[in-house]
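Tutorial handout. Part one gives the primary structure; part two gives the three-dimensional structure as C-alpha cells.
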Amino acid sequence: MGSSKYHQLADVLLHIEATMRQQSLWSKQQPEPWRLESIQPFCVDTLSFQQWLQFIFLVKMREIIETGQQLPSCCDIAPMALESFKQLEQQTDGIVHLLIECDQIIAS
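Part two.
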C-alpha cells in the first residue's frame, strides 16, 4: 500500500473536518465516554452521525494513518451519511461528496 493513498486520505479527512466546521456540524464538546463505547454500527444508539464522524471515524482514521496501520478493505460511509443527513435542514452535499471520495480511496 503506497504512502500516496495515506496522503490522499489525510487530505480528505482534513477537508471533512473543515467542511463540518464551516457548516456548524463540529461539536466543541466531547460526548460522555460511555457514548463512544456503543457496539451499534455508527453508534446510532448513542451519537448523531456527525458526532460519530467527528469523535469515532476521524479519530480512528487519523490514528491508522499516523501509525501506518492497514486501512480497512472498504468503508461505505457515504450511504449512511446520505440517510443520516436527510433530517438536517442544511446543505450537506459537500460532506457527502468528501465521504464518497474517502470510500473510493479506501476501496482502491
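Part three, for discussion. The chain has a mean pLDDT of 92. The chain is about 55% helix and 0% strand.
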